[in-house]
């Protein structure tokens, strides 16, 4: 099968299946594409948009591009799906690209002297760039961060376009990002409502989004972890009378703490619940396949299980509903802990201002002391820590220092609108945006990529724009909650399930990746240690060895030479 691509070049590309002239340059493309043309221009849609009222008229979008930024961003925010929308203006020859809000249809590119090539297939673009070598900065970023955040890829001379962006394209020149969208709105003062009223409003918004994204004829699978988010989605699908089942993986030698809870959710709704066993002897081929499909180390440990689930759903289902993003919107423990640290910092600073000599005392405290940490608290540094890999200190110190990662530069690459924290609300909003632009976006990229392999479409009900906007306006008491986060979603769940079930301890979506590295993936992990010439002690660092094992497989498939990661390692 031929790889899909877009090319803006000074010459016509013969291997393309379609061509348009863009001023003095050629727009060439290949792949499954929706093509719409009118007097003003051409619209090419790669991937899919869920919205049933999607306006695919080129003139509509070209007029927004030319005249009204606010309306353009509003229209782009409302689109849900995994897509890239390319617009060619016939009169000016200008070529613009709008990338999807969640990076589900990620585009990589390589720029030569007379052309710029784009594709969702990183390996294909890497062949255009010549012999394969690791991009040093992209490699080090991957080793430091759970989620690849910047515009680098793992291949030298290959970059990636940012999500939620309006980009100008021209042959022989780097893509020019003109605008970003998808930012969480600032919180506005609003009349307070009861928890029940908030729950009713959110439930209606979720119903509207799911109804506009899923047809009554679609066969739907909900990934049911046993947590709050997926159980609410399953209940609303039943409320809408969709043709739906629940799916939950189970793993050898691992007791999923929420499996019985997931079973109870399905029983209370009377929904078919498929338990998908993921056996240890499947792990090596599944891991290898996941690395090949993602062209990199899977950043979500659960990607391995989810690839297998997609394979089981293939041919029988049309849509897969996934609850990712709800934590950040409706009650994240990580954000809750950030707010507590920030509030304590503000209190301490106020106290220090009225206590003579307190600043000198704090400066003399040991670096690890609680009061010194609170006094030196910095929003940006605390935020960057939240998206870094949890590495053992010895491993982190051993990483090569020839490429230094500037935390401020990393944060600037993310989809955030301001690093100025004038108040508590703006600081919390910034943290949420960083998490969205790294954690949530990469989750959806991996999920969408794996689902698309089997002609399945991923639906993300919690991160549709109306729900995001409403959640951003919730008062702290309904975001942070008391003993339980996500109080509004739990309140929705109480309408469908035994209330006690909604308040059981929740453990997320755990997978036994450490067990896999010690058993099924042990041979590959040992080969990765040799390939990258790293100390044996690194094999004890689960997060590092997981990443290295994926990078090793990528390197083997791309015929890369062995790579030394650290200085002075024999």
UniProtKB/TrEMBL annotation:
Q: What are the residue boundaries of the Glutamine amidotransferase type-2 domain, all occurrences included?
A: 62-125
**EC numbers, comma separated:** 6.3.5.4
**InterPro entries, per the entry:** Asn_synthase, ASN_synthetase/amidase, GATase_2_dom, Ntn_hydrolases_N, Rossmann-like_a/b/a_fold
Q: Which reaction does it catalyse?
A: L-aspartate + L-glutamine + ATP + H2O = L-asparagine + L-glutamate + AMP + diphosphate + H(+)
- A Pfam family cross-referenced in the UniProt record is GATase_7
Q: Which pathway does the protein contribute to?
A: Amino-acid biosynthesis; L-asparagine biosynthesis; L-asparagine from L-aspartate (L-Gln route): step 1/1
**Where would I find the Asparagine synthetase domain in this sequence?**
202-528
Q: Spell out the protein name for this chain.
A: asparagine synthase (glutamine-hydrolyzing)
- Give me the gene this protein comes from: asnB_2
